[in-house]
Amino acid sequence: MSLLKVEGLSKFYDRETKVLKDVNFEVKAGEFLSIIGPSGAGKSTLLRCMNRLVEINEGKVIFNGLDVGAMKKKELRKLRTNIGMIFQHYNLVPRLTVIENVLHGRFGYKSTIQGVLGRFTEPEKEQAFFLLEKLGISEHAYKRCDQLSGGQQQRVGICRALIQEPELILCDEPIASLDPNSSKVIMDYLKSISTEMGITCIVNLHQVEVAKEYASRIVGLKQGEIVFDGPSKLLYGEQIQNIYGMESRELITV
Amino acid sequence: MNAKQMRKNKWQTTIFFILIIIVTYLSTAITKFNFIDSIATIPAAFSWIFSNLLITEESLEKLPQILEKLGETIFMSIAATTLAAVVSLFLAIMGSKTTKVNQTFSVIARFIASFSRNIPVVAWSLILLISFGQNSITGFLALFVATVGFLTRAFIESVDEANQSSVEALTATGATYFHMISKAVIPQSLPQMLSWILFMIETNIRSATLVGILTGTGIGYMFDLYYKNMNYNLVALITFTIIIAVIAIELISNRIRRVIL
Ligand SMILES: Nc1ncnc2c1ncn2[C@@H]1O[C@H](COP(=O)(O)OP(=O)(O)OP(=O)(O)O)[C@@H](O)[C@H]1O
Ligand SMILES: [Mg+2]
């Protein structure tokens, strides 16, 4: 059975323009999927429909057999606990320490009181340090996040997602603000998350080359419609041109 | 900026000055305010100040009493400000577009804020005097209400500025509304909020003196009492202690600000 199923999904922020038009695809557990497409194609919107950070207008998103669009508050919370998210701008709380930010990933499991008082169990703290160790930033655990480099902050973001013990991780352009070296580090970590831990990853990317190198499957989005869906090795120059449009040939090579 | 625009600006400035002169002239004529005469009284006023507003040894005997009243006033200002800060925090979270629960509460919160802000603290004292009479509750409430108005407005801005992105991230982890407020919004806006609270404490200590004159409490009451008895030596001493207190509070809060920001 597939982990995630998107059926006839449409989304509009205002009545005139549909940002997503009848999107259909399935994601199997353990897959490393990349969504590519030009700016404004609707990649971020598509990702945010999956954990309902934006409301679904038409069609369905089915996660683990459950209809995401129909979920009540409590179920939705449970769903989000099961889905980690990584952002282009890391989205950490800048004034708090690294370890505090990582532990934020446990809020889905906490009652309001426990969370507000910051009550975390010993195993949770140990797990947080274990993850920081794994991503090579344990020496920064007590530093404020705004003192870290971009690549380090993104690794904190990954720790925050992993401590949720999710089945699926959504990454919205995780390397768009990073230099090539840090980008490679982050992509390697994401790849190992999917192969070692068996967590399904959906990664929005700008760089086609990166997508081809890391993802097993690629979905190409153009003006809210899927124009390519297949194994990454089958994505050739012609399809790339189709996704990005003729005029942006230079964009592909960079 | 090109030459034509510059010439235009020059003209505008000239016209502006001419207008001011005309308005000034008209208003003095209407109110029969005599400029030359009033300037002529300045030396006399100063010599009166220097010969009468003197701190004498005799007046220093009253110092303990004055300090007690001053302390009362300072603590009242601090209490009114901190209590107002708690209420404002609540209103600001309701009112801010990032954290509002629904549109109705948001509008109500903003309305309360602008309503209490746009009535000056002196007016609040006078209004509250009618219902509460001359006692320290009136002064306290007047400061409290005016402070709620100001702080809510300032806090709404701090909350709006707190970056939206970490709120989104916490929502995505399955955090509840209160998790998000307490762990993403407040940590980011707290330094700014504390800075505003300190500013309001300073302001309120100044206004509390004035409010005290109206409500008959604290250092303002003493000032009023000796002023009406024409005991100018004590008036001078009181004024002096107020100035010292205000400067001291300002220095302290500047130091605190440097630590938290
Ligand atoms: N909150 C919003 N309100 C209104 N319109 C929005 C909102 N978010 C996105 N849009 C619009 O939806 C369209 C798709 O945006 P989206 O962010 O999903 O694209 P994207 O593929 O992620 O682009 P990018 O590569 O630049 O991140 C854009 O035209 C954008 O203007
Ligand atoms: Mg995007």
From TrEMBL, chain A:
Q: List UniProt keywords, sorted A-Z.
A: ATP-binding, Cell membrane, Membrane, Nucleotide-binding, Phosphonate transport, Translocase, Transport
What are the record's GO terms for cellular component?
Answer: membrane
Q: Name one GO molecular function term.
A: ATP binding
In this chain the ABC transporter domain maps to: 4-248
Q: Which SUPFAM superfamilies match?
A: P-loop containing nucleoside triphosphate hydrolases
Q: Which InterPro entries match?
A: AAA+_ATPase, ABC_transporter-like_ATP-bd, ABC_transporter-like_CS, ABC_transpr_PhnC, MetN_ABC_transporter-like, P-loop_NTPase
PROSITE patterns per record: ABC_TRANSPORTER_1, ABC_TRANSPORTER_2
- Regions annotated as coiled coil: none
Gene3D superfamilies attached to this UniProt entry: P-loop containing nucleotide triphosphate hydrolases
Descriptive protein name: Phosphonate transport system ATP-binding protein
Q: Give the species.
A: Gracilibacillus orientalis
TrEMBL record, chain B:
Matches recorded under Pfam families:
BPD_transp_1
Q: Does the keyword Cell membrane apply?
A: yes
What are the entry keywords?
A: Cell membrane, Membrane, Transmembrane, Transmembrane helix, Transport
Q: What topology does the record note for this protein and the membrane?
A: Multi-pass membrane protein
Segments traversing the membrane:
12-30, 75-95, 107-130, 137-156, 208-227, 233-252
Is the keyword Transport in the record? Answer: yes
Q: Which PROSITE patterns match?
A: ABC_TM1
Entry's family note: Belongs to the binding-protein-dependent transport system permease family.
PANTHER family per record: ABC TRANSPORT SYSTEM PERMEASE PROTEIN P69 (PTHR30043:SF1), PHOSPHONATES TRANSPORT SYSTEM PERMEASE PROTEIN (PTHR30043)
Q: What is this protein called?
A: Phosphonate transport system permease protein
